[in-house]
Amino acid sequence: MVTDKNIGARVRAADGRVGILRAVLADYRDPATIYPVVEGERVPGVPTAFVGPEGGGVEWTALPADLEVVARGVAA
User: Fold this and answer.
1) 22 Cβ contact list (under 8 Å, min separation 6)
2) For the chain, give me the number of helices (H) and strands (E)?
């Protein structure tokens, strides 16, 4: 599991992808998802980690619990 204290570390996802941890949000709601609207209530978010692939490419998201740190402080 990763936290915001691991930002900049090399991490491995449960599916084997490796990248650099860019951000961890405790209560993220994807803006592309349609959430049910209940007047006066806020839809809770999900803990989400944002990971950039080493060498560039498309960033992906994962649950922080599905990531493990493999090297610390490798990002510039």
Assistant:
1) 7, 50, 51, 52, 59
2) 0, 5
Residue span of the structural domain in which 55 resides: 4-71
Q: Is the pTM of this model over 0.90?
A: no
Residue with tokens 């599991």: 1
Per-run averaged pLDDT (10 residues), the chain, 76 residues? 96 95 95 83 90 94 97 66
In a domain, 34, yes or no: yes
CA distances from 34 to 16, 31, 37, 43 (A): 29, 8, 9, 11
Structural domain contains residue 41: yes
